[in-house]
Design brief:
- Keywords: Biotin.
- InterPro entries: Biotin_BS, Biotin_Carboxyl_Carrier/Decarb, Biotin_lipoyl, Single_hybrid_motif.
- Pfam families: Biotin_lipoyl.
- This is Acetyl-CoA carboxylase biotin carboxyl carrier protein subunit.
- It comes from Candidatus Salinicoccus stercoripullorum.
- This protein is mainly beta.
- It folds into two domains: 42 residues, no CATH class; 87 residues, OB fold (Dihydrolipoamide Acetyltransferase, E2P) (Beta Barrel).
- The protein has one helix and twelve strands; from the N terminus they run αββββββββββββ.
- The protein is elongated.
């Protein structure tokens, strides 16, 4: 990612008064955090999955956004077919949605096996960093 694009991201973070802005593609991830002053930028080459799963109440796992953007449950723009539906069984690595940020689409992947308990965000809704997206019930529960 070139410095001009990073400057644009910093400007966006300031203008929108964002606390965290994380943008990634296949090669690079840029993470900008503002802490009351000028934004701090960290860039790294190893991009992690754009979502992760952690334990929640009642044995449920919550898939959370690891970036700010627009969450899509639909597989294609003009489609009504979702990546997953409530009750679907998913395996670790299965795509359960996408997050778009600055015209870059990032897959949201399940990081555990389970059954979709609830989809917490609608198609086309804006999501914040660390916002819960989907809850999974471990298989067999």
């Amino acid at each position: 990612m070139d410095m001009e694009k990073i400057r644009e991201l910093i400007k966006l973070a300031k203008e929108e008064d964002l606390k965290v802005l994380r943008i990634g593609d296949m090669d690079t991830e840029v993470h900008i955090e503002t802490k009351g002053g000028d934004p701090v930028v960290a860039e790294r080459g190893d991009k992690k999955d754009m979502a992760y799963v952690e334990g929640g109440q009642d044995g449920l796992h919550t898939v959370k956004a690891t970036q700010i953007g627009t969450f899509y449950t639909h597989k294609e723009e003009n489609s009504t077919e979702n990546f997953v539906e409530t009750g679907d069984a998913v395996s670790s690595g299965d795509q359960i949605g996408m997050i778009e940020a600055m015209k870059v689409f990032n897959d949201v992947l399940a990081d555990a096996d389970g059954v979709v308990e609830e989809i917490l965000v609608g198609n086309g809704e804006t999501v914040e960093y660390d916002q819960p997206l989907v809850t999974l019930r471990p298989k067999g529960d």
